[in-house]
């Protein structure tokens, strides 16, 4: 008997066979940051309340006929400031228009402007933040100083000047003018957040390994740095969406936002302000919907931010 056979015999039968595979429970698998964040979000009451409110507002904007069959542009002076009824839940305004129908249809333009302006701000902020954080040096210094210059411009004053200039066409309803104005002026915070996230991510080991394997700057930014830096960026954009909706209502209230035949919460609040003593309903209801929508997006952004922040775990 050889030495190997003697050792095998001493260890007993089955000693030389390969070990049986151990059953791994799915609960033992490591989770990603997004997985941990989703578990926290499912336990958050604020997240669910905000999500339900956002879903309702989005349904109002996309499918207003689900909530009302009335025409918001069908007005009659004979119904001026008529009280609420079974056909008009919120009553009528000074022009005899259905306040409930105008409130429901007003969500479309407000959400449209808010989403488009946020996307424009996100694109600009992504380009500036990613470029400044990745390249560093004089590129970072130049882009950071440009961001500081934009931050130094008074937002409301610049928005009034830009919106008034862009909506000079009498045939325009002001939607694109307000969208471009808010998008061009509202990207600075997102750019700063992206820059900080990129600086933290580009010094990680997986980026250094990809660089040693020959990955170029474009591949490093798009495949390795951006996916690991975009979480906080998306949170900022979610909060910015609510801010843009409020800003559109502010510009429309001042008479330099949406105009013409456009229906907006800001326009409704502006028109009803002169009659608040005799008929407060046309002012109160659009204000409630506007405040609830802005609050819902801000709450959603705060809930997502808390879930993705490891310091709060």
Structure, explained:
The protein has 313 residues and is mostly helical. The chain has a single domain, classed as MetI-like fold. Helix content is 65%, strand content 0%. Helix 3 packs across helix 13 (281-308), helix 4 packs parallel to helix 8 (188-202) and helix 4 (99-135) packs parallel to helix 13 (281-308). The termini are far apart. The mean pLDDT is 83.
Secondary-structure map:
Layout lengths: L2 H9 L21 H10 L2 H18 L36 H37 L1 H16 L2 H12 L8 H11 L2 H15 L2 H8 L4 H9 L4 H24 L11 H8 L8 H28 L5
Helix pairs in contact: 2-13, 3-4, 3-13, 4-5, 4-7, 4-8, 4-11, 4-13, 6-7, 8-11, 9-10, 11-12, 11-13, 12-13
How many individual domains?
A: 1
Shape: elongated
**Low-pLDDT residue spans:** none
CATH top level?
A: Mainly Alpha
State the end-to-end CA separation. Answer: 61 Å
Number of strands: 0
Helix count, DSSP H or I runs of 4 or more residues:
13
Instruction: Give helix and strand order, one letter per element, not per position.
Output: HHHHHHHHHHHHH
- Main sheet properties: none
| Percent helix range | 55-70%
Mean residue pLDDT: 83
Q: What is the architecture at the second tier of CATH? A: Orthogonal Bundle
Beta-strand residue percentage: under 5%
CATH superfamily: MetI-like
What class, by secondary structure content?
Answer: mainly alpha
Summarize the structure.
With 313 residues, this protein is an all-alpha fold. The protein contains 13 helices and no strands. It has helices at 3-11, 33-42, 45-62, 99-135, 137-152, 155-166, 175-185, 188-202, 205-212, 217-225, 230-253, 265-272, 281-308.
């Amino acid at each position: 008997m050889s030495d190997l056979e003697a050792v095998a015999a001493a260890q007993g039968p089955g000693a030389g066979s390969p070990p049986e595979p151990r059953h791994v429970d799915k609960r033992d698998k490591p989770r990603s940051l997004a997985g941990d964040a989703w578990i926290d979000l499912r336990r958050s009451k604020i997240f669910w309340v905000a999500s339900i409110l956002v879903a309702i507002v989005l349904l109002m904007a996309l499918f207003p006929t689900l909530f009302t069959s009335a025409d918001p542009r069908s007005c009659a002076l004979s119904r001026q400031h008529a009280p609420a009824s079974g056909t008009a839940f919120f009553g009528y305004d000074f022009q005899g228009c259905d306040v409930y129908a105008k409130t429901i249809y007003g969500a479309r333009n407000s959400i449209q402007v808010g989403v488009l302006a946020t996307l424009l701000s996100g694109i600009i902020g992504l380009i500036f933040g990613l470029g400044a954080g990745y390249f560093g040096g004089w590129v970072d210094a130049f882009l950071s100083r440009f961001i500081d210059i934009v931050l130094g411009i008074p937002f409301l004053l610049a928005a009034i000047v830009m919106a008034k200039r862009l909506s000079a066409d009498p045939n325009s309803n002001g939607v694109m003018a307000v969208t471009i104005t808010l998008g061009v002026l509202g990207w600075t915070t997102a750019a700063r957040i992206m820059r900080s996230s990129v600086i933290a991510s580009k010094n990680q080991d997986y980026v250094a390994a990809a660089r040693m394997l020959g990955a170029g700057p474009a591949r490093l930014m798009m495949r390795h740095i951006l996916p690991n830096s975009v979480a906080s960026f998306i949170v900022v954009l979610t909060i910015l969406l609510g801010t843009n909706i409020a800003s559109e209502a502010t510009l429309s209230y001042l008479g330099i936002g949406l105009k013409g035949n456009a229906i907006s919460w800001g326009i409704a609040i502006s028109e009803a302000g002169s009659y608040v003593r005799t008929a407060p309903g046309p002012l109160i209801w659009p204000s409630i919907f506007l405040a609830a929508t802005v609050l819902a997006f801000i709450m959603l952004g705060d809930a997502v931010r808390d879930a993705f922040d490891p310091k709060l775990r």
